[in-house]
Write a structure and sequence with these properties.
With 685 residues, the chain is α/β, with parallel strands linked by helices. It has five domains: 114 residues, Rossmann fold; 119 residues, 3-Layer(aba) Sandwich (Rossmann fold), CATH 3.40.50; 103 residues, Cobalt-precorrin-4 Transmethylase, domain 1; 99 residues, Methyltransferase, Cobalt-precorrin-4 Transmethylase, Domain 2 (2-Layer Sandwich), CATH 3.30.950; 182 residues, Vaccinia Virus protein VP39 (Rossmann fold). It has a seven-stranded mixed β-sheet, with helices on both faces. Strands 6-11-10-7-8-9 form a six-stranded parallel β-sheet, sandwiched between helices. The protein has a five-stranded parallel β-sheet with strand order 3-2-1-4-5, sandwiched between helices.
């Protein structure tokens, strides 16, 4: 079989070397430095050669290796090296293939273009402000021509001792010397520019794989001017994908790649039951990997294997640090859209692992990633991990099959409602004073008797678990991202409906009576996550009934009288319904800034019924509404609205209720005012 030499001075070169060796094609990967060699792992089919060579040495090396093919995947700016490789191939008769990193159309307005690092230094010598230099260590000496360069220039270079010593001799030391391995995310570039107050960023046009686009976006957002050192003229070459196609003509096995998703296995996953379908292209694999608690020991063997086999690791900084493998290419981000865009822009990476904390199915970013990657052409795999609830319950020696799962980290959630109605509630908490707030709310809503367990930095060496009552834990100091498990032995597991009128705090505000209230709420057909407006909320009795049924939703109680708003707040706490927001104002004006509703109850309109219904229909043309009225004049307004607005009439009820009252040894029936209940749905039939 022909042997291949790859000059692997770029990410594409390293990826190609591993791609070939993984398919049992002998490869020798050449890197100029020992550090470059550490970025590749040798195996029976991959040999790593380190050290710089001139043309003559290259020719000798090619003959010793009996190289039939040489792939030049050196840096776009290494023009002299590329020329020597090409000439050495001509001398020895080896086939020369130039892998060219794709250029990027910058479209950057605030940019200064120069032809060399010398020109960049000359330009910067006449400016003021700090400078972030990302052009490497080889030509760093040329920046010493800038006046006061020791204070103005911040150099980002490779993280090797040899490089650090050389840079220090030039006067770059301390915070002015940033030793890191790229490519770097947009966020990290922004952070460095802002931290050192850099007004200029010097870069070469390193292409997509070199993180060039991320630098441009970062400079734009940080308000820094880009000084671009233009590429030297290049000879004709091929993209990464084109090189792979060329190589497939030399090595038939590369044309026989299989789609692993076209293969069925038996239940024990040991025997193939169907011959794999063949294809001429290698399908890229993106593995969404749950890494557990953020330490290597909590990763499953399958997750460890996915990380080891990956060409590229993607995730938030904490996830990348937990996985280790600092020699691999990384992209630090957690946004699904940006991750999908980065994967699409970097076809040189064939095996990609996206690292997600805990388990990918428990409040993780996997849900959005499935959607973002659906049209990418990549095969998406999933590896579950140990979730925080599984880990925490095991530490508490507690079963978790009866635990209600909630998260209030970066989202709204009716945690009080969950605690009130479940024996155990697990919550991922947000940052800041979230635990103190939770303890305060539990006491305010009559849940002082519960027992809380707070878990901080689960899985780490400094893990801490604290237990106690809300009052005992309210004034502690906790880690920014913690979890809580709350036990409520007095939980109410039934459905709360048709609450007694006497249970409410009344005041002077009008109140819809229990039987009418229950029937009206039933006609709304609320979902668990409904967003409901209660217009003319009065005491808030209907708001409370709706909030209890839409436990994961939100009820906006709109009331124009200030004393009634105060009463609603009291009833809200009395019944433990924090998913009520009291809005003081007159509808429809008070509705303008509220979220889109799914349902609305209109108990009082102050003469603005048509305007209110029109506003609701504009917000949600399919909204479901229930209207209560006791006057004939209002029923006339309702009938006019049903005829002129885009709604379909579902039902009009007239309800007459009489309740018995004791009078001596007898009971007399006392009638309440007749009431009309009108139900309608947005959208004409």
């Amino acid at each position: 079989m022909k042997s291949v030499i790859v000059f692997a001075g770029t990410a594409e070169g390293r990826t190609l070397s591993e791609y070939l060796s993984g398919r049992q094609i002998p490869v020798t990967a050449c890197t100029a430095t020992e550090y470059g060699g550490t970025l590749l792992r040798e195996n029976p089919y991959l040999n790593v050669h380190t050290g710089r060579m001139d043309r003559e040495q290259m020719g000798t090396f090619f003959q010793e290796e009996r190289a039939a093919l040489v792939v030049d995947a050196t840096h776009p700016y290494a023009a002299a090296v590329s020329e020597n490789i090409c000439l050495a191939c001509r001398d020895t008769g080896a086939e020369y293939i130039r892998l060219i990193r794709e250029s990027v159309n910058t479209g950057q307005e605030d940019m200064v273009e120069v032809n060399s690092v010398e020109e960049a230094a000359a330009y910067l010598a006449g400016t003021k402000g700090n400078i972030l230099v990302t052009t490497g260590s080889k030509e760093l000496a040329k920046y010493t021509a800038i006046p006061n360069y020791e204070e103005r220039v911040f150099a980002r270079v490779l993280s090797t001792g040899e490089v650090a010593v050389a840079c220090e001799k030039l006067g770059f030391r301390g915070k002015h010397l940033i030793c890191m391995q790229g490519p770097f995310s947009e966020e990290l570039n922004i952070a460095l520019l802002q931290q050192f107050d850099c007004r200029y960023l010097v870069t070469k046009e390193t292409g997509k794989a070199g993180g060039f686009e991320e630098k441009l976006r970062a400079a734009s957002k940080a308000g820094a001017t880009v000084v671009l050192v233009g590429r030297p003229p290049e000879q004709k070459g091929y993209s990464y994908e084109e090189v792979r196609k060329i190589l497939s003509g030399h090595f038939p096995t590369l044309s026989e790649e299989i789609h692993t998703d076209n293969v069925n296995k038996t239940e024990d996953c040991a025997l193939w039951t169907k011959a794999p379908e063949k294809t001429t292209e290698t399908r890229r694999i993106v593995t969404l990997t749950g890494i557990g608690m953020g330490v290597p020991l909590s990763m499953t063997a399958e997750a460890v294997q996915a990380v080891e086999e990956a060409d590229l690791l993607i995730g938030a900084r904490r996830m990348l640090e937990a996985a280790g493998h600092t020699e691999k290419a990384v992209y630090c981000d957690y946004d699904a859209g940006r991750i999908a865009d980065y994967i699409a822009a970097h076809p040189e990476y064939v095996r990609i692992a996206v690292l997600l904390s805990g388990d990918i199915g428990f409040y993780s970013g996997a849900k959005k990633l499935y959607e973002a990657l659906s049209g990418s052409g990549c095969q998406v795999r999933s590896i579950c991990g140990i979730s925080s609830v599984m880990y925490f319950c095991s530490r508490l020696q507690m079963a978790w099959e009866d635990v209600c799962l909630k998260s209030v980290h970066g989202r709204d959630g009716n945690l009080i409602g969950a605690v009130r109605s479940h024996p155990k509630t697990f919550a991922i908490l947000g940052t800041g004073d979230s635990i103190e707030k939770l303890c305060t709310e539990l006491q305010e809503y009559g849940l002082s008797h519960v027992r809380m367990h707070i878990g901080e930095r689960l899985g780490y060496e400094d893990e801490n678990i604290t237990s106690g009552s809300p009052e005992e834990l309210a004034h502690g100091h906790y880690d920014g991202l913690s979890v809580a498990l709350i036990e409520n032995p007095a939980f109410f597991g039934g459905v709360q409906a048709c609450l007694e009128d006497e249970a409410f705090l009344r005041g002077k505000a009008p109140m819809t009576k229990s039987e009418v209230r229950s029937l009206s709420v039933a006609k709304l057909r609320l979902t668990k996550d409904a967003v409901v407006y209660d217009v003319g909320a009065g005491t808030g009795s209907v708001s409370v009934e709706m909030a209890l049924q839409a436990a994961d939703g939100m009820v906006y109680a709109v009331e124009r009288k200030e004393e009634a708003c105060t009463l609603i707040e009291k009833n809200k706490r009395h019944f433990g319904t924090p998913n009520i927001r009291v809005i003081h104002g007159l509808a429809p004006e008070a509705l303008a800034s509220l979220p889109v509703p799914t349902h609305a109850f209109l108990g009082g309109s102050a003469g603005n019924l048509k305007e209110i219904m029109d506003c609701l229909l504009q917000k949600n043309p399919a909204i479901r509404m229930v209207i209560n009225t006791v006057t004939l004049e209002t029923i006339g307004e309702v009938m006019d609205c049903l005829k002129t607005l885009p709604v379909r009439e579902e039902e009009i009820l007239s309800v007459n209720i009489a309740k018995a009252r004791a009078l001596g040894a007898y009971h007399l029936m006392t009638g309440q005012n007749p009431i009309y209940i009108i139900t309608c749905q947005g959208g004409k039939a």
